[in-house]
Specification:
- By secondary structure, the protein is of the alpha/beta class.
- Helices cover 36% and strands 15% of the residues.
- The chain has a six-stranded parallel β-sheet, sandwiched between helices.
- Strand 5, helix 7 (176-185) and strand 6 (189-194) form a beta-alpha-beta unit.
- 39% of the residues are buried.
- Mean pLDDT is 90; it is low at 1-5.
Length: 201
């Protein structure tokens, strides 16, 4: 089923799509996005948005996982960007799956709760919009495609993907590598923030 259109009162100048690593769990064997890099990641996301001139004429799309997603949304809200969150799971399940496992999971949940009232529109939930996924492994890849198809509704020439990524394959289907490949295949622009080059303060 194709994604249903998002009702907006404007045609965005550019669509800012985000995909990036969730903050590492405390016991992650090989660090990918540890808590020590949060400030550096936030700084680079802000720099990317400023380079693109992000403002109230733009639309931001992403999930709301701990780490990159919430850093991106917080920065977009600060700039007055119209933000729309698309969740792959019902919110309680999403919180358990994509917020709590990260380092400082309770703090990330609190940041999400504080951010929600500041969003232009309430989050949309994929199972409610598109029906249940065919299989558990398809959930996050399906949400990537839902985000991308929604972004492309305004044309590939308006699509800017900002990604926070180490350049490697993800832990499962639907990771940032998948999103980058799909955006490039469909003609969108990619701004890559390489987590391997981030420096802790």
């Amino acid at each position: 089923m194709p994604p249903s259109p998002i009702a907006t009162a404007f045609s965005p100048r550019q669509v800012l799509l985000f995909s990036g690593h969730r903050m590492d769990a405390p016991d992650r064997p090989q660090p990918r996005f540890p808590a020590t890099l949060e400030a550096a990641a936030a700084r680079e996301i802000a720099r990317a948005l400023d380079t693109l001139g992000a403002d109230a004429s733009d639309l931001a799309l992403c999930q709301a996982a701990a780490g990159g997603d919430l850093l991106f949304l917080e920065a977009c809200v600060q700039r007055g960007v119209h933000c729309q969150v698309l969740l792959p799971l019902a919110e309680p399940a999403f919180v358990q799956r994509s917020l709590w496992p990260s380092t400082h999971g309770a703090a990330w949940q609190a940041r999400w709760q504080a951010l929600k009232p500041r969003l232009a529109d309430p989050p949309r939930v994929m199972p409610d919009e598109l029906g249940p996924a065919a299989a558990e492994g398809d959930t996050f890849e399906r949400c990537n495609l839902w985000l991308l198809d929604t972004a492309l509704a305004w044309g590939a020439h308006r699509l800017q993907l900002i990604c926070l990524w180490d350049g490697a394959a993800g832990d499962g289907p639907g990771g940032t590598q998948h999103m980058v490949q799909e955006v490039e295949r469909r003609g969108g622009q990619v701004c890559w923030i390489d987590t391997r080059r981030l420096a802790a303060p």
